[in-house]
């Protein structure tokens, strides 16, 4: 089982994974998910109206709901959904699997031979626990969709389409196993990353009321107040796009990317990189390069606008990685985050933030972000109020 595409070695199996992602998540296909995203954004706004203090929970539900609906055609229950519970456990265990203590084993492989009782090297125990949960996540939702496809019922989805195109009408067992891995990775890779980006967005707006106001004006003029923004509005809302780019830059979701290894001996800027070297892409540092992004700790959407107010060429792709291993879901991720942030701005005012002890948060420096593969803010509070009654 090759559950995490991002952790696979480059080769034929990985190429097969990427081909399947392309079928469901390339730039020209993603707009087809607009209706699903719109209905989930509406539900999100309703939840936020009912209980604004639980905004992080609603963001979690929105992220899970969009990806579950897109990948499996499955509408999650408002609470205690069995697939979401399973998926959250899978995300937790996969995140543990790239915990520093497990990563160090990849860098220093001889550590694998230390006895289990060495507490710092928890990777063997994690691997055992992870396997069971991931296996369940891999088969339960898959069987649900496959049975629906065979019975010619259920909603259309990324998985249903893959099954129709590749297995139901012929296709081999191996292909079916690859499809299982691909759809499971899509959930695991997509849900928590989207949560991180959206919570950072709420923090950015809470800290910058003037930017919030300007973004709201942009939406009011182009979209009006009677409906939520959609993908069709994107190109008319350059300031909203600039806010999205700055959110992704200001606090990158995956600050150190996914570790890779060099395939061959190489020379870069006069440094010799032997074959097999672990390569860590420090996305966080790149988004803080002062020669490209002056005052990098400040939240300045204008850095992505030209003088005539249109978006410039820097689409802020750095947070999605590089080259052939660049995030396979980036177009879907951008649209999912865009839909939620534009919906929040059109419907709500976000007040000043404070930490859990009531201490005001004045800048990014006042709030901690978690370690680990995906970086999350520590908890904070802010008043979220409807703009219209
Ligand atoms: C804001 C949301 C997201 C961010 C910031 C993000 C970021 C990243 C980053 C930094 C990588 C590593 C790239 C590298 O190794 O150079 C990655 C890989 C990946 N992402 Fe995302 N991601 C997001 C959402 C998603 C979504 C929604 C999906 C699926 C629908 C997804 C699927 C993947 C996959 C499959 C890989 C592994 C690619 C490979 O190794 O070939 N991601 N992502």
The percentage helix is: 40-55%
- Uncertain spans: 107-112, 116-121
**Sheet bearing the most strands, described?**
2 strands, antiparallel
Kindly report how far apart the N and C termini lie: 51 Å
Question: Could you give the order of the helices and strands?
Answer: HHHHHHHHHHEEEEHHEE
Strand order of the largest sheet: 1-4
Tally of alpha and pi helices = 12
The count of DSSP E runs of length 2 or more, i.e. the number of strands, is 6
Structural class estimated from helices and strands:
mainly alpha
Query: Which ligands occur here?
Result: protoporphyrin IX containing FE
Strand content: 5-15%
Radius of gyration from CA coordinates: 21 Å
The coarse overall form would be globular
Give the integer mean of the pLDDT values: 88
Protein name: Cytochrome P450
Cofactor: heme
Binding site for heme: 327
Keywords: Heme, Iron, Metal-binding, Monooxygenase, Oxidoreductase
List the helices and strands and how they pair.
Elements lengths: L11 H14 L8 H17 L4 H18 L9 H16 L2 H8 L15 H28 L7 H11 L4 H35 L1 H14 L15 H13 L9 E2 L4 E3 L2 E3 L4 E2 L3 H4 L43 H18 E8 L24 E7 L3
Antiparallel strand pairs: 1-4, 2-3, 5-6
This protein binds protoporphyrin IX containing FE.
């Amino acid at each position: 089982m090759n559950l995490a595409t991002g952790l696979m070695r480059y080769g034929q199996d990985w190429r097969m994974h990427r081909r399947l992602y392309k079928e469901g998540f390339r730039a020209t296909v993603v707009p087809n998910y607009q209706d699903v995203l719109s209905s989930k954004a509406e539900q999100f706004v309703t939840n936020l109206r009912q209980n604004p203090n639980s905004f992080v929970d609603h963001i979690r539900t929105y992220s899970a709901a969009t990806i579950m609906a897109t990948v499996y055609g499955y509408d999650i229950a408002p609470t205690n959904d069995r697939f979401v519970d399973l998926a959250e456990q899978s995300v937790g265990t996969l995140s543990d699997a790239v915990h520093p203590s497990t990563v160090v084993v990849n860098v220093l492989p001889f550590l694998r031979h230390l006895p289990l009782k060495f507490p710092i090297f928890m990777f063997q125990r994690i691997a055992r626990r992870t396997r069971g949960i991931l296996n369940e996540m891999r088969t339960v939702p898959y069987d649900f969709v496959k049975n629906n496809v065979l019975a010619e019922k259920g909603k259309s989805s990324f998985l249903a389409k893959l099954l129709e195109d590749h297995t139901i009408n012929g296709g081999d067992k191996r292909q079916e196993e690859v499809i299982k891995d691909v759809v499971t990775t899509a959930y695991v890779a997509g849900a928590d990353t989207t949560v991180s980006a959206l919570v950072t967005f709420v923090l950015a707006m809470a800290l910058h009321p003037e930017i919030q106001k300007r973004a709201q004006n942009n939406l009011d003029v182009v979209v009006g107040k009677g409906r939520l923004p959609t993908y069709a509005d994107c190109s008319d809302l350059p300031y909203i796009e600039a806010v999205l780019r700055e959110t992704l830059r200001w606090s990158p979701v995956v600050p150190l990317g996914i570790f890779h290894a060099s395939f061959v001996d190489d020379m870069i800027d006069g440094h010799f990189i032997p074959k097999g070297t672990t390569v860590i892409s420090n996305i966080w540092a790149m988004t803080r390069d002062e020669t490209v992004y002056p005052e990098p700790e400040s939240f300045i959407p204008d850095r992505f606008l030209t003088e005539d107010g249109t978006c410039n060429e820097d689409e802020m792709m750095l947070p999605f990685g590089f080259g052939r291993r660049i995030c396979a879901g980036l177009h879907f991720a951008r649209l999912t985050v865009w839909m939620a942030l534009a919906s929040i701005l059109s419907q709500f005012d976000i007040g000043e933030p404070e930490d859990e002890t009531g201490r005001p948060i004045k800048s990014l420096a006042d709030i901690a972000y978690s370690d680990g593969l995906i970086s999350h803010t520590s908890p904070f509070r802010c008043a979220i109020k409807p703009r219209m009654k």
